[in-house]
Amino acid sequence: MAEWDIQKLEEKYRDTWPAAFEANPDDNEKFYLNVAFPYPSGAMHVGHGRTYIVPDVVARFWRMQGKNVLFPMGFHVTGTPVIGISRRIAKNDPSTVRIYRDLYRVPQDVLDRFDDPMTIVRYFAGEYERLMRRCGLSIDWRRRFITVDPQYSKYIEWQYKHLHEEEHVVKGVHPVKYCPSCDNPVGDHDLLEGEKAEIMKFTLVVFEWQGAKVPCATLRPETIYGVTNLWANPGVTYVRATVDGEEWVLSREAAYKLELQDHTIEITGEVKGTEIVGTTASHPLCGTVPVLPADFVDPDMGSGLVMSVPAHAPFDYIALRDLQEEGRFTDIAPVAIIKTEGYGALPAKDAIEKAGIRHQLDPRMDDVTREVYAAEVLHGTLLVNCGDQAGKPVKQARDDVAAIMVESYGSKEMFDFDTRQVICRCGGRVYVKILHDQWFLQYSDPAWKAEVHEQLDEMKVVPAEVRAEFHRTVDWLKDWACTRRVGLGTKLPWDPAWIIEPLSDSTIYMAFYTIAHHVKKIEPEKLTPEVFEYVVYGTGNPTTVPRETLDAIRAEFLYWYPYDFRFSAKDLISNHLTFQLFHHRAVMPADKQPQGMVIFGMGLLNGAKMSSSKGNVVLLEDALNEFGPDTVRMFLIGSAEPWQDFDWRNELVIGAKKQIERFWNTVSEGLAVEENDGREIDGWLISRLQHRIENATAAMLNFQTRQALQEAFFGIEADLKWYRRRLPTIAPGSAAVQELCSVWVRLLAPIVPYTCEELWHAMGNDGPVAFAPWPVADVAKVDEKAELAEELLARTVEDVESITKLIQIQPKAIRLYVAPTWKEQVFAMIAAAEDRTNAVKLVMADEGLRARGKEAVNTAKQVTKFIHRLPPELVRSIATNGVDEMAVFMSAKEFLEREFGVPVQVLAAEGSGEAKADAALPFKPAIVIE
Question: Quick one: which of 300, 592, 811, 875 could link to 253 by a disulfide (CB 3.0–4.6 Å)?
């Protein structure tokens, strides 16, 4: 055969495959998998490639198992991200233009039209599909849709009609992420930075200061009893402001934030930080305290002023310590107010000293702060100097003191993010705003939560440990603002001034895939809610669509749904992946609930997180051009299991390319038929092959695609290497090798489909390899004795090589001493023992072995140690099947002499007179090298 040329193979098969993967209902069992659809606002990178290649490998596996597989794809374009991009390009924003022109390499004539959001959508959706086809993804492209298609909008309107009628969508007042530049609430998909930011509720503890109020934001209001001072930044100019009729002093940034949160703010003047430092402030629960200077106080955090609790806050403790080491404020002492198991009177001091932290800028400060915080909240109790709160657990006192502060001491609530910067895709800063008359999905509903918890317990979740993360998300999930004033998307049916936001319109689109290719042929105005009601529930009598068409659409839905597995990234557990469970429970029938989810890890490039905005990406097209689709696929599958993070490194990708070339060459050579069939080693090769099939299949069934590759490629390659080593001459072809090649090509077909397609046809097979039967292990072809014999030989050869390397001499002769039968008895006894700690006692209980005295005792110890180093399955096989070691070595004498180029003798250890022969054990002959 010709040399492997993946680019030619791609050109040969890429455009012929899609029609074969158009899945229609039939009599076979279905397997429906889907993956989070992409937002086509930029070029695909190799991280995207992995997201879609892993499900494709799974889809191809199940097709070869005889299932009718559906793997669809659509594009998510609702919301404001693409609008923000188009605005930045229209303004000729340098960083945005650089990314799209230089990194994504958008042609200038196309880029000039990117001031239209839909031009961006259409261009990149086309690019995504083109590259997915290049990757060989077995997608049914008939079902493609984008989330602004009018037919899809009709489907979303039907969904929200259901949610509204069941009171899952309600009007309310809630804090939300808000972009003033867009004048719109935003979700995670709308953000350039701070996608993981959570909204935190702070209590503003209000101190009296020179006739005004000074608020300090805290998550720990119960620590007011331990306040020793306040911190103010002398380099900041604060403002005087009338806040809800009271005179306050706070940072300008805090005043703006509070104005967004239902507070009436009027700035009346300025106060320099130097005017505040050195004065005093007071609060009824802690008395009068000084205000100390602190450059670390950020005016953009909280109110720009901080109350200090050095006994329990590591940052406060170390800041006070630094000042006192300068001889300043030495009269201030930390006040202990919380007793926590594992800590002394001053937990902040204990944590800092234990970590060896010497200064405020130590990056571990955040970690020790979280450590102390968590310990106190979970296990702390307030001390007697805490007034009415004494003896209360911190967790309870925190909420009780917050309520008392608001009711009796003029405190207010303030909302802010747990991360510094949250940036909208428009480039503007995002804040927390209290929205009125906003529509919310009521994820706080306990009954709804209970249904989702129940569904989670019934589903298969891979890996299993993320199930707990799902349950935690369901528990803490709050009401979600599901509408926006601007952006692309579906208008809220009963309140069309609002548009359904991106995460809220992409919760049950998996069901839309089953009918998309039918529905897109119907005029949108005919797709009334009654149509979808009939398709999903079989109820009603819609008249806008012929009954024959409706029945065909409903039949397709009923055949495919529910989906069997959904693939998506772990960072979506906190929103989309959990949202879709809520919506399925609310909208879909009981027998149409999700069956399973596989959660992906993240993508790294040379050890760093991939980021298009920072230019730290490898574009998928560049990777395909340089390495070819099969190489990209093999590397991405082989680099990590789906739920693990993978790291793209070009030098390792080159290694994957060489591996496929070896596979191609080996199979090509193996196609030649030889007349030397019937060799003993052929039986061993076929026996080993059954285990590779079994292990690769088990791995695929558990979505362990990397482990499947390890067995299907590296395992078989290792077996072939030993097989060829054992042959007297190089003999590439035989019936056994041809049988192996047929299996090998099919095992690797889901991973490197272009290469395997060509090899499959070169073997004389008809039809695509994608629909060839997946190999099935044949127990009748397993020969444990042959495998044991070769394992013994391989281990012995390795031992000889290790010894010669160690002693660094050129052998003149090798003698192998085989252990006597009584040692085999010792091995079998210890191998069968449940408790091997009493091996000597067990062996000495046998009268015949006891008669051997110290020799038996030493052998028992040596065998026990040896068994612990062997794989349990090998120990079982040795003990069960036994090995005629003398016969094995004698039959392989020619091989051993050929391997080492010296005469080899095989002798019985017992009675040999060779002192070293006493070390011979079952499956480990004594080796003497002359």
Answer: 300
> Percent helix, strand, coil in the chain (nearest 5)?
50, 15, 35
Do 566 and 138 form a contact (C-beta atoms < 8 A)?
no
- Identity (one letter) of the amino acid at 158? W
The residue among 185, 218, 190 whose CA lies nearest residue 204 is: 218
Answer yes or no: are the C-beta atoms of 434 and 172 closer than 8 Å: no
Q: Which one of 76-80, 158-162, 498-502 scores highest in mean pLDDT?
A: 158-162
The whole-chain average pLDDT of the chain stands at 94
What's the chain's length in residues? 930
CB-based contacts of 759: which residues, under 8 Å, 6+ apart?
Answer: 664, 667, 668, 741, 745
pLDDT higher than threshold 70 for residue 845: yes
HSE-up of residue 174 (Cα within 13 Å, Cβ side): 20
Hey, how many other C-beta atoms are within 10 angstroms of the C-beta on 29?
10
What span, in angstroms and rounded, lies between the C-alpha atoms of 737 and 735? 5
Angle in degrees, CA 530, 536, 538, rounded to 5: 70
For residue 913, give the 3-state DSSP assignment: coil
Strand partners, 484: 499
Return the structure tokens found at 251: 């940072």
Q: Are 610 and 649 within 8 A, CB to CB? A: no
- Proportion of the chain above pLDDT 70, given as a percent: 98
SS3 assignment, position 185:
strand
Residue-wise pLDDT tens digits, 231-260:
999 999 999 999 999 999 999 999 999 999
326-342 burial code (b ≥16 CB/10 A, e <16): eeeeeebebbbbbbbee
Two structure tokens written together for 499? 């548009």
Beta-sheet strand order (sheet of 480-481): 184-185, 169-179, 431-441, 480-481
Question: In this predicted structure, what is the pLDDT of residue 835?
Answer: 86
Per-residue pLDDT tens over the stretch 538-549: 999 999 999 999
CB atoms within 10 A of CB 11: 11
Whole-number pLDDT of residue 170:
94
- DSSP-derived 3-state class of residue 78: coil
